[in-house]
Amino acid sequence: MARDRWQRVEELFCGALEMPGEARTAFLIRACGDDRELLLEVRELLSAHDAAEGEETEDFLEAAVDGEVDRLVAGRDGQPEGRRIGAYRILRTLGEGGMSTVYLATRADREFRQWVAVKVIKRGLDSDEIQHRFQRERQILASSSHPNIARLLDGGTTEDGRPYFVLEFIDGQPIDRYCDEHQLSIRDRLALFRTVCAAVQDAHRHLVVHRDLK
After folding, report:
1. CA angle at residue 189 from 186 to 193, to 5 degrees?
2. What does the pLDDT look like over 88-105, one tens digit per residue?
3. Catalytic: 212?
4. CB atoms < 10 A from the CB of 167, how many?
5. How far apart are the two ends of the chain, measured CA to CA in Å?
6. In 3D, which of 186, 187, 214, 190 has the Cα closest to residue 200?
7. Rounded-to-10 torsion of CA 78, 88, 115, 117
8. Cα 56 from Cα 180, distance rounded (Å)
9. pTM of the predicted model as reported, rounded to 2 decimal places
10. DSSP assigned state of 18
11. Residue 65 main-chain phi, psi, to 5 deg
12. Catalytic residue selected from 4, 34, 77, 212
């Protein structure tokens, strides 16, 4: 990373470090503006720091400069952060459903930089029936090309035999919060809702009926 770029990342990292979750997010969005890559770089560093419990900030930043952040977050029992799934390293949990967990991850082999969402079946729920459903969902996503449905990038099986798939990571926010923060009119909200409905209709054409659509 170029020196001036790293200085900007370090400045935002230190500024956000002591902030609580919502304030941290608002600060980074405001400070990074349209530079989404900068936002993701700082978020990745913060996630790795939060995972590296007990590590002094100065030591952590020195390790980050040396490209050793993986060392700081790897190998902690019971924690997903820092573990590898295929070619990806887990940064943090994005969300959980009844059947699976979705993680934010990044390429672990450093061939190129890419942030993704990795969806993995939960331990204990990997029966033949659920695995079949999960693999069918993966195949349906592979055949979809709708611009408002996240693209499937990769897939495979974890070391303990659970199937997973990798999706493009969309750094968004809940639709109601987006509407409120941008003070959208009723007409604009309905126009946005129609876009969502078009994506759902495309899923229905592929014989997908989402039973937990909010």
Report:
1. 135
2. 888 888 887 767 788 988
3. yes
4. 19
5. 40
6. 214
7. -60
8. 39
9. 0.57
10. T
11. -60, -35
12. 212
